[in-house]
Amino acid sequence: MNRILPVALVQHRDRGSREANLAHIAEQVAGAADAGARLVLLQELHNGPYFCQQEDPALCDLAEPIPGPSTEFLGQLAAEHHLVIVGSLFERRAAGLYHNTAVVLDADGALAGRYRKMHIPDDPGFYEKFYFTPGDLGFRPVDTTVGRLGVLVCWDQWYPEAARLMALAGAELLLYPTAIGWDRNDDGAERQRQLAAWQTIQRAHAVANGMPVLSCNRVGFEPSALASDPGIDFWGHSFVCGPQGELLAEAGTEETLLLSEIDLDRSEQVRRIWPFLRDRRIDAYEGLLERYLGE
Fold first, then answer.
1. Rounded (10°) angle between helices 69-81 and 18-34
2. Which of 65, 192, 251, 283 has a CA-to-CA distance to 220 between 20 and 30 Å?
3. CA–CA dist 221, 138 (Å, integer)
4. Distances 105 to 144, 205, 209 between C-alpha atoms, Å
């Protein structure tokens, strides 16, 4: 019998406060449970605005410990609805030491594990290095009642090495809480190129590793506090794809509770006909440990 996993992705705009965002998430998780979902993926830093558009030490007050208030809230939701929730939080590890951290709450409400974002961007509008220390937990999947989850975060999605290491550690699917969007100065053609690249790279991770991918992105315009910055139009387009990169479900640019089903046993069949893990030349990849092989 195939192992069919019903999943849900909560794509939404910032509602202006932690309380309002969590209330919306609670409603969406309840709707996902009513629809039969057993796994819910939330977007990156879902408790509030994407604050990394500026560098402001006072915004570090948004960080919280893990375990802490948000993991308790999400754990209660998970236990109430008997499903697994993957969330995304601004973690306060110690004074002046913070991480961008994904958390996994199992169906009994327990904190099953966490992943600290490894790749930290530093670009106009995305000043994450000011806030986040690179992760130190490695690329280790989290075991849950619905399977072994390879959880990564946003900028990690551009790196095939991260997806591969999760696959080699036994992940059964990859999940990406995400916050990505367009600069309002970008024209329509540039926006389409960026969106296509974002989807293509993640679907390629599914193909290269023979496993499903879930990517949940923010949506809506969020202004910047900097007069010189036009803000970000988060483009949504959350999606679920199968182990051959086939799209199973895709959202648009509006708030959405995206529902889909994943056949976890298909990965076994796909890997038998496309045995990329078998044919890897691990004896010839030492160059991957170098920053650059040119002069």
1. 20
2. 65
3. 33
4. 8, 24, 25
Ramachandran angles phi, psi of 221, nearest 5°: -85, 135
Residue type, 44: E
Q: Distance between CA 214 and CA 242 in Å, rounded?
A: 9
Q: Over the stretch 216-272, which tens digit does the pLDDT of each residue have? A: 999 999 998 887 788 999 999 999 999 999 999 999 999 999 999 999 999 999 999
The residues near 225 (Cβ < 8 Å, ≥ 6 apart) are 53, 54, 56
Kindly report the number of other CB atoms within 10 A of residue 144's CB atom.
23
- Catalytic annotation on 154? yes
Low-confidence ranges of the chain (pLDDT < 70): 1
User: What does the pLDDT read at residue 193?
Assistant: 97
For the packed helices 160-168 and 188-209, what is the interaxial angle rounded to 10 degrees?
A: 20
Q: Which two tokens stand for residue 120?
A: 């930290």
- Give the integer Cα–Cα distance in Å for 101 and 88: 6
Among this protein's residues, is 19 annotated catalytic? no
Domain boundaries, the chain: 4-276
Catalytic site includes residue 44: yes
Joined together, the tokens standing for residue 210 give: 């023979």
Q: Mark out the alpha helices in 150-247 (DSSP H runs).
A: 160-168, 188-209
Candidate list 52, 154, 216, 241, residue with the active-site label: 154
Distance between CA atoms of residues 128 and 56, nearest Å: 11
Give the pLDDT of residue 264: 96
Of 52, 91, 117, 172, which residue is the catalytic one?
A: 117
| Confidence at residue 195, expressed as pLDDT on a 0 to 100 scale | 97
Q: Is the dihedral of CA 269, 274, 279, 285 positive or negative?
A: negative
Q: Which pTM does this prediction carry? A: 0.96
Is CATH 3.60.110.10 the classification given to domain 4-276? yes
Predicted local confidence at residue 225, as pLDDT: 83
